Amino acid sequence: MTTQRPVPRLGVPGAASSDRLVGVDVARSLALFGMMAAHVGDVAENVDWADPTSLGAVVNGRSAALFAVLAGVSIGLVSGRDRPPGPPAIGRVRARLALRAVVVVVVGLLLMALQTPVYVVLPTYGALFLLALPVLRWRPWALLLLAVGCAVASAPVALAIVPLYADADMFGVQLGLVYPVVTFWAYVLVGLAVARSRPGGAVRQVLLLASGTVVATAAYVVGNAAAPIPFDTTYAFPGVPFVPSRSDAGQTFAQVFLSPRDHSSSIVDVVGTAAVAVAVIALCRLLVDGHGPLVTRIAVPLAAVGSMPLTVYALHLVVIAAWPEMPQGPTTWWAFVVGSVLFAMLWRRFLGRGPLERLTARIASAVPAPAPGPAPRA
What we know:
Blueprint lengths: L21 H19 L21 H17 L10 H24 L9 H11 L7 H22 L8 H4 L7 H16 L4 H26 L22 H10 L8 H22 L4 H6 L1 H7 L2 H14 L7 H22 L3 H10 L14
């Protein structure tokens, strides 16, 4: 079983409570299920709209972006939402997030030691937590401006660091190559900007859904027109731009900066996948949040999985490591989905917070928490 589809996950989760944004948890669960499809579902490499059997390939890259954007949303929610605190409270928030980052990196390295054929995102994820610390009090427009800069720089930076990995093994390429930090920082910044924007209820979510849909559509239309995905991407590597042989200067420029291929680190890839993530999060919130206890109860299976993303992510890799000859396909994917839902619901019902989420929170509690504010948890 092999895969070249990275997919992150983990947020800054808390125990289930009445002030929790259930729609955000549902979005996390969708990101997790997309990751599982990429890892064990035997999905196609690329989407061919003329071939319905290839549509499962939409999870490639977009699940990773959704994870990272949700990380930014979570960081924003636990650090004051649209009103981040000033000193000294913000210092304690940063210290607690830094401790969480350390835990994420350690868990990621342990999962990498299992030597599964899956690229583990968690070490990069921990780095993203640390990179978010200096910008916690930035305004949304400044965060988006920096995200745009990251999107433009993503492909050149990815190409520049390739020589550093000339002799890297499977373990090594997971540390900054498959998951380029600049690329994924753009996703985190977008999520943080979403969390920092002023509340607007359903109207705000409609605007986010509409803007995400329009931006994603425009990005992919431009990308497919200017830099169609090459027929043979055998030698393409996740996180790195791919230029077919015999390409002229114009084609090379287009493939590097405008390719719609997932994990290509192009401007189109970063902008398109970030916009899809924003639209998915807004849609989940529109469908779930603010509609009363009945809708909340209906969403419990998905919300339970999304409330313990680090645990579910780690467990699915442990299962893959324990069963190296696991068959890939829709049946296996459904087994992972159902197993994740049953585990998360039972654990949450009887034990509350997920085990790795509980451990992370306990370690972070070494730093006294800031005074409680009105922002909901994620």
